[in-house]
Design brief:
The protein is α/β, with parallel strands linked by helices and 318 residues long. It has helices at residues 50-65, 78-87, 100-109, 131-136, 175-181, 194-206, 221-224, 261-266, 268-276, 281-292, 298-308, 310-314; strands at 41-46, 70-75, 92-96, 113-130, 162-166, 186-190, 212-217, 227-230, 252-260. It is globular.
Length: 318
């Protein structure tokens, strides 16, 4: 899979405050609980997109209420989270979209990080147009026809080209290379964050305007704004190996968990629980929707899900 796979954002709905351009870089910050000798403590890395926050919210709730741990959360961008995990400043990363360079460095070479198993959720990044536009112009869903619609997809930010709306520059994205290598008359415009991107998408949808956006599944926004994927050249293993030469679609990525190696050995019930944690895309979306659309706090959303799904989470307990 690409190896540089994405990551999304949702500001006002996060577990911790976000900056306008992505999650704050907290790599210099150590949790007050990290490496606390003899204490039942766990530190979880929190990415800046709401789906991943749903994982952390439910894990945190169960660690605290069922296993008696004190849980700290630290918000970190995707790549710096690997450094923090390696150094023991966080104990676990609950949702990774594929970072083979970091995986080789820390898991295979340094052996400071270990694989924590499959999350049970498959992620996919792609280009999407609103379904109302795809229904009116069915051929727009083939990348070969995108230039035909560039004029309709222009914005003030994209100048004389069509706009391809991306989230934060910190996300893993091949979009600039794709636009260049596929010969598309488009400009990648960064909204700055998942929250800003969602705001723009919702505004476009409210006005029934066409748009082309980088987006991903699982994501709760599809429930509110139906979108249809644009077919890019098919993904084949290795087609994205050179970031500058990418000319293929993003892969479908089984999302993975990773643990600090020492924590995996000495983390007791907490480490065993996090390895066992595995749920579905539907479950993650249920909790994410409660946080993002219903405005519940992450803890409230986690509590509501836990009360309704005991048979699922009981199987995770050591």
């Amino acid at each position: 899979m690409r190896k540089r796979v994405m990551a999304p954002l949702l500001a006002a709905l996060t577990l911790l405050p976000l900056t306008a351009c992505g999650a704050a870089d907290m790599t210099k910050q150590a949790s007050p609980y990290a490496a606390a000798q003899g204490a039942k403590t766990v530190t979880l890395s929190v990415p800046s997109w709401v789906g991943a926050q749903a994982n952390v919210a439910v894990a945190k709730y169960l660690l605290e209420h069922e296993l008696g741990y004190r849980v700290d959360t630290v918000q970190i961008d995707e790549v710096p989270a690997w450094d923090a995990l390696s150094q023991g400043r966080v104990d676990a990363l609950m949702e990774d979209w594929g970072h083979p360079d970091e995986e080789k460095r820390y898991v295979d070479d340094k052996k400071t990080v270990v694989r924590g198993g499959d999350l049970g959720v498959t992620g996919h990044i792609g280009w999407y147009v609103p379904t109302y536009f795809a229904e009116a112009h069915p051929d727009v869903t083939d990348w070969k026809n995108l230039n035909k619609y560039a004029d309709q997809l222009r914005t003030a930010e994209s100048g004389g080209k069509g706009q391809l709306l991306d989230g934060s520059p910190s996300y893993v994205t091949n979009d600039k290379a794709l636009v260049k290598n596929l010969g598309l008359d488009y400009k990648v415009v960064f909204a700055g964050s998942e929250a800003a991107q969602i705001t723009q998408i919702e505004q476009f949808a409210k006005e029934k305007k066409p748009f082309l956006t980088y987006w991903y599944k699982p994501q709760w926004l599809f429930e509110k704004v139906p979108m249809t994927e644009v077919k890019l050249p098919p993904y084949k293993e290795g087609c994205d190996a050179d970031p500058k030469k990418v000319a293929c679609a993003y892969p479908h990525t089984p999302l993975q968990k990773f643990l600090n190696a020492d924590f995996a050995k000495k983390g007791g019930e907490a480490a065993a629980f996090l390895k066992n944690f595995r749920w579905t895309t539907e479950a993650q979306n249920d909790v994410a929707l409660m946080i993002a659309a219903q405005k519940l706090s992450p803890e409230e959303a986690a509590e509501k899900w836990v009360k309704a799904n005991e048979p699922t989470w009981r199987a995770w307990l050591p």
